Amino acid sequence: VDKSIIGLPVVAMTRFRGQSEKVVVAESQLFEKPESLSFEKAAAIPVNYLTAYALLVAMGGLQKGESVLIHNAGGGVGLAALDIAKKIGATTYGTASPSKHEFLRARGLDHPIDYRTQDWLPILKELTNDRGVELVIDPIGGAHWKKSYAALRHTGRLGMFGVSAASANGLGGKLK
After folding, report:
1. Cα Rg for the chain, rounded, in angstroms?
2. DSSP states of the chain as a string?
3. In order along the chain (176 residues), what is the average pLDDT of each group of 10 residues?
4. Rounded CA gap, 40 and 33, in Å?
5. In which region does residue 54 sit, left (phi positive, over 0), alpha (psi from -120 to 50) or beta (all else)?
6. CA 148/CA 74 separation, integer angstroms
7. Closest of 133, 135, 155, 128 to residue 61, by C-alpha
8. Cβ of 158: how many Cβ atoms within 10 Å?
């Protein structure tokens, strides 16, 4: 057991119910919190950034020069995905309400798309010369996944997570 971490501020990887001041986890799940990060920002790493990393890199295989459509680009996972995609060197498209477009552009989003007042798919197709993107990450699911699938180039990949359409339809899950 490494006792050097005792008394230091840490971030812990938890499966569920990690939004607490005190949790019990295995030592392998602890990481020292960098001084430069607040606790709030550090807490976003395991939730938002690991989810985005899994979708973009581990499962999505996003490469430099490819393109990605990030649905809900202004949300926690969306912002993390934007940061990671820009670091990789991908062209980024993102659906978001118009009030977030300026912020997202400043954050590095190449092409914000308003999904509230227009159909986002024809806009994306126009922006990509009807080619679509290599990767779409979609937190909505339900009937929405068909449009996300239609946004893909040949050999494109679709990463789904959260699937908020399921909870909106009353398909809940219980944590055990």
Report:
1. 18
2. --GGGTTS-EEE--SS---SS-----GGGEEEPPTTS-HHHHHHIIIIIHHHHIIIIITT---TT-EEEETTTTSHHHHHHHHHHHHHT-EEEEEE-GGGHHHHHHHT-SEEEE-SSS-HHHHHHHHTTT--EEEEEES--TTHHHHHHHTEEEEEEEEE-S-HHHHHTT------
3. 82 76 83 89 84 95 98 96 98 97 98 96 97 95 88 95 59 47
4. 11
5. alpha
6. 18
7. 135
8. 16
- 2's tokens: 């490494």
**Closest to 106 (Cα-Cα) out of 86, 127, 135, 130:** 86
What's the rounded Cα separation, in Å, for the pair 85 and 82?
Answer: 5
pTM of structure: 0.81
Burial of 114 (0-12, 13-18, 19+ CB in 10 A): middle
The residue type of 119 is D
Report the C-alpha gap between 174 and 176 in whole angstroms: 6
